[in-house]
Amino acid sequence: MTTRTAHYYVYGDADTCTHRWLALHGYGQLARNLAGKFDHLASDKHYVVAPEGLSRFYWEGVRGQVVASWMTSLDRLDEIADQITYLDRIAGIAGISRSATARRIVLGFSQGCATAWRWLVNSQPPVDTLIMWSGWLPEDIDYQAHLPYLRGIRLVGVHGNNDPYYEGGRFDILLERYRQAGLEPEWVRHPGGHEIDRDVLTSVAAML
Q1: Whole-angstrom distance between the N-terminal and C-terminal Cα of the chain?
Q2: Terminus of the chain with fewer CB atoms < 10 Å: N or C?
Q3: Rounded CA gap, 174 and 105, in Å?
């Protein structure tokens, strides 16, 4: 085991906020770009902490843009354990574990959605809302065993009608997975694709 330096990005004012966000980026992205998606929301009301996945790589092989990932299939259980420990620390920075006056929101985009699910069922932090944006429901979790905790969280799913990852009936499969898990999210559909659109984010934030 070794200690390593992790990075996270912040938007907003932790002292005045009414909404505390923990935002998890998708595969091949960077946390600072995700944090930037919130910059049109009132900074005195929204405090956003966006941690970066612990694995970085070059998007184009050996050069070009550096991006990050939460995990791969190699030594996946070790990576899941590391990311849970990491997010426990980040949750303290975001105020997720201690804030009783602000709404506590976890947003997971794409791969970050599966990361959010694994962290929630393992650590069971006091979260008010989970936003599952263009993300899959991990198949390695026994949701039935965690229903007393999960049913205390408002679940909001956000999906684009033109998301290429959910073509060919895959979105219907996702809906069935939620049904089998005993979970009933609210759904926000939009005409976009596999991305976080600022206008849609504004609408979702207004729901909370």
Answers
A1: 40
A2: N
A3: 22
Is 118 in contact with 84 (CB distance < 8 Å)?
yes
Tokens of 8: 């996270």
**What distance in Å separates the CA atoms of residue 49 and residue 5, rounded to the nearest whole number?**
16
User: Under DSSP, is residue 154 helix (H, G, I), strand (E, B) or coil?
Assistant: strand
Tell me the residue type at 21: W
Q: What is the largest CA-CA distance in the chain?
A: 47
Tell me the average pLDDT of the chain. Answer: 93
Give me the pLDDT at residue 49, please.
97
What SS3 class is residue 91? helix
For 60-67, which contacts have Cβ atoms below 8 Å and span 24 or more sequence positions? Answer: 66/30, 67/28, 67/29, 67/30
Length of the chain: 208
Beta partners for residue 11, in sequence order: 48
3-state secondary structure of 156: strand
The per-residue pLDDT for range 29-52, each reduced to its tens digit, is 999 999 999 999 999 999 999 999
Q: Is the pTM of this model over 0.85?
A: yes
Q: Are 23 and 29 in contact (CB under 8 A)?
A: no
